[in-house]
Every structure is written in structure tokens, then in C-alpha cells.
């Protein structure tokens, strides 16, 4: 389990998240809380908004690596994920 501080701009938070979890900077990621609700980072990864606006402190989230499947029909969004557990202080 990793501890992260969400009191920074989202662009820096996501960059650090990928670096510390061993992911390439070009990979798409998502966060899911313990109830299965997605944070919906897609399209916000370069935002200058505070990460704390999307994340609740002292809560655990699972990091999901999102992989698009090229054979999927254009209207379908097929994804596979791998995960890492983390807690935000």
C-alpha cells in the first residue's frame, strides 16, 4: 500500500502516481474507491485543478491501468485493468 498527498495540482498528482507505481507516463489510469465508484480521471489528467477536489482524504483507492482493445467496435469501450492499492492522507 502506498500513501499519497492529494493536496497538489491534478497534473502533478497523476504524474507522481504513475512514477511511483511503475507505470509509463503515457498510460491511462483511473482510481476506484472501496465501493467500486470510479473517480473518472479520464480527460482530467492534465488539469491544474487540485487533486483533493476529486479525492477524499484518509480514504483508500485502487489504481487501475486502463488498456484499450484495438479490435473493439468503435462504439464499444472495452477495457482491461491492473491494480495497485493506495491510501491518501
UniProtKB/TrEMBL annotation:
Top-rank taxon: Eukaryota
A Pfam family per the record: Il2rg
UniProt-recorded name of the protein: Uncharacterized protein
